[in-house]
Amino acid sequence: MSDLLTHWRKFKREPYAVWLGFALIGFALVLLPFATDAAMGRSWVRILDHTLLYIMLALGLNIVVGFAGLLDLGYVAFFAVGAYLYALLASPQFDLHLPFWTLLPLGALVACMFGVLLGAPTLRLRGDYLAIVTLGFGEIIRIFLNNLNAPVNITNGPQGLNMIDPIMIGDFSFSRTQQILGITFSSVHNYYYLFLALTLLIIFISIRLENSRIGRAWVAVREDEVAAQAMGINTRNVKLLAFAMGASFGGVSGGLFAGFQGFVSPESFHLTESIMVLCMVVLGGMGHIPGVILGAVLLSILPEALRYIGPLEEALFGRVIVDPADLRLLILGLAMVLIMLLRPAGLWPSPVQRREFSHHDES
Amino acid sequence: MTSSTESGLLLKASGISKHFGGLAALMDVSLTIHHKEIYGLIGPNGAGKTTLFNLLTGLYSADAGTITFDGINLSGKQPHEVTQTGIARTFQNIRLFANMTALENVMVGRSVRTHAGVFGAILLNQKTRDEERAIRHRAKELLIYTGIGHHSQMLAKNMSYGDQRRLEIARALATDPKLLALDEPAAGMNATETAALRKLLESIRLSGVTILLIEHDVKLVMGLCDRVAVLDYGKKIAEGTPTEVRRDPAVIEAYLGGAIA
Ligand SMILES: Nc1ncnc2c1ncn2[C@@H]1O[C@H](COP(=O)(O)OP(=O)(O)O)[C@@H](O)[C@H]1O
Ligand SMILES: [Mg+2]
Which of A186, B95, B148, B193 has the greatest CB tally within 10 Å of its CB? Predict the structure, then answer.
């Protein structure tokens, strides 16, 4: 048994094994929407699309909470900024129809600015105090969106914005069913591949940042702010950068969300969304990118899977005994409590603990 | 080179006072440190030694007085700016980055002398790659230099007490300091560890770094330091070579007591 394990460990280090692993994962990711469509229906492909948006959000929040250790309860504000920016600049509201390739970076940039805007006044705050302020910030953004329909109508208030342009790259419309090489790609499939590409880009950026001078500065600030300062780190800039980077991921995700849905309203940007994304980060394993992705996948899929409770109850008992919506929340909450009790560092925490036992040096 | 460095003066603090509420932690303290010397700062607990460190490194701001380091006025400077000018420190109550490895701790120390920004980090261009390699290389060198090279992959929080103190020194050295300020580096060390620490400090001095040392171990201070200042209740009561200080009646009265006399 342990023999097998050492073999497996050795194998895992081989470069070709790594490439083989990547190739297999890539292959699976490409096939996933078709397999899902065939096995579970189109609505589940849509759920996959949403999952990818959540992964981007979770990775963004992970920079702020996981790396830099700044508890942010208003993260959904940046998602909202990205979504509304896209909606305002690509819809009949102002009859603006900017192309996607300008909207996407613009969304990242504007969200970035909002990140700094939130970060600047909170630099001296930590822990619970920071959490309260960021929570307030998230609510302010939502309430603004809700009320900016008078005296000048900008956001259309609680009704939200409609008929948002679908995402187009050149002549290729993601919202249309497309025929490529004789294969039919429906709208949700098109979006899946677009979101997947951008998710991979965000993962790539996260990994690069983590293993850089900047990533180390973030973790240093998280571990001991005074010591970080004494080591010459400008903690103010480092924290603002964390807010800005995290926010930009949120902005990108928000823009994609707006184009995908074709409709945004303040309803979508409730505090509960911030908490959900935070749960993904914490449950998966704060500061560990694969863990955070796992957390995002689980918490996107699980609530959807729990929708089958109603039909399941009917099948088992012939009628619905407990309201499925209540039961769904109950099970979801229970699952989170259990996971946190059994694995306080998250489902898939960073393997530093393991790393320190193998005393070999990389180079 | 500024005129102050030519005259051998590295740090000059004059008329430093600091109050915490009604408590006068430091009163009109002045001292000068010269290039490449080991300068000891001693005094009973609560005398204000650590407070002076915190003022030097920008963590606190003084109520009165000025600090000039290497020709630069330090007043109003943020801690990271002070580090930039060349003062690095360790902490009396060890403050390592607990969940980072020893190597990563020291790599953080290189931050102030390196430049890679967001785009460099993401694109990982040749310049960033080279810089990153140099950071890693220097960090490993410093771990070996301070005698903990074999623990590079250990989490800081899991290291022994003595090794943590060494790691703090390695991390401080990574900032390329001109002045290394050590706050009770031998605290909690046994005789063997203290002897090794003394060798290390002598070698650091030989490499051209000036050392400011707070220490309770009288033998270590007297054996190692070129000059010593004695603080008592926030006042400097003596300054001079170890021999001079040891004979000073005020010092004997206040601190060393019968143990030395
Ligand atoms: N941040 C602070 N707030 C209030 N009092 C402080 C603070 N730092 C130090 N003091 C007080 O200042 C005095 C000097 O402390 P310190 O510099 O730590 O002494 P030493 O390092 O010489 O033992 C002590 O009485 C201590 O209680
Ligand atoms: Mg002290």
Answer: B148
